[in-house]
Specification:
The N and C termini lie far apart (52 Å). It contains 3 helices and no strands. It is elongated. It is mostly helical and 100 residues long. It has one domain (2-91).
Length: 100
């Protein structure tokens, strides 16, 4: 159970830099460059890979539980953020009936 909880926590913490940048892009107050996006993506990938490596070395028997929980938490956050981004992109493009 502790491997699952640790995986969820690491998955959520691993999302923080990318979600922060994504929120800046949605807010229209900051211009977000492609270079910053790629840098955050590389940092995220390397960080989560290092966490998996540590679990592999320290507690190999918990690797599957930890990895599945980490990926599930990470993807859950990105489903929420992708939905928010889709709504933000389409709310301006689709006129609403009865709303002026």
């Amino acid at each position: 159970m502790s491997a699952v909880l640790a995986g969820v926590i690491c998955g959520l913490v691993g999302c923080v830099p990318m979600v922060w940048l994504f929120e800046q892009a949605l807010s229209n107050e900051h211009r977000v460059s492609m270079a910053r996006g790629l840098a955050v993506l590389v940092i995220n990938y390397v960080g989560l890979s290092c966490v998996l490596l540590v679990v592999y070395v320290v507690a190999f028997e918990a690797l599957l539980e930890f990895g599945c929980a980490m990926v599930a938490a990470h993807l859950t956050v990105w489903v929420i953020e992708a939905t928010r981004g889709w709504r933000a992109a389409n709310d301006a493009a689709v006129p609403r009936r009865g709303v002026r």
